Amino acid sequence: MVPPYGSLSFLLVFPLCRQFGLDQPGMALLPLILAMMAAYTASWCEQRQRISLNPMVDAVVAWGSGSGRASPGRVILRAGLCRALWQAALYIACFGLIYMLLAVLSAHHAIPALRAVTWSALYVAALLGAVLSLRTRQAYAVLVGTLGALALLIWGGN
């Protein structure tokens, strides 16, 4: 997950878990997964926004040559406002959808309580996500080495 979408996930999960009393790792897993999907969606939306704003570069170049009216300040303001608005709209939409899903599940006492999921397992999953987000061969090598060492430890313990 590319920053600042880690904070998007946190801002989605924390109030929802607090609202619905999801204080056990197995119960918090569903909102965590949905928040990760929201972060991925935000990353995809940002990529689309960057593509749609590419013509503004030409407008600034034209301004620099004296033939355009789009000053760099105006372009930056427009891009910043556009980004702030779609991020706010995405947060509101994601929060609303996850809230409604959790409200329905809570009303029917159907929020999955996976007792086998522990905080340690969630921390390891978060660590793996952080390593994978680096997107370098060295990070992948560290990940494979760590998983290999973990497999050897588990296999040796049996």
UniProtKB/TrEMBL annotation:
Transmembrane spans: 29-46, 84-107, 113-132, 139-157
Print the keywords alphabetically: Membrane, Transmembrane, Transmembrane helix
**Transmembrane helix listed as a keyword:** yes
Q: What is this protein called?
A: Uncharacterized protein
Protein's organism: bioreactor metagenome
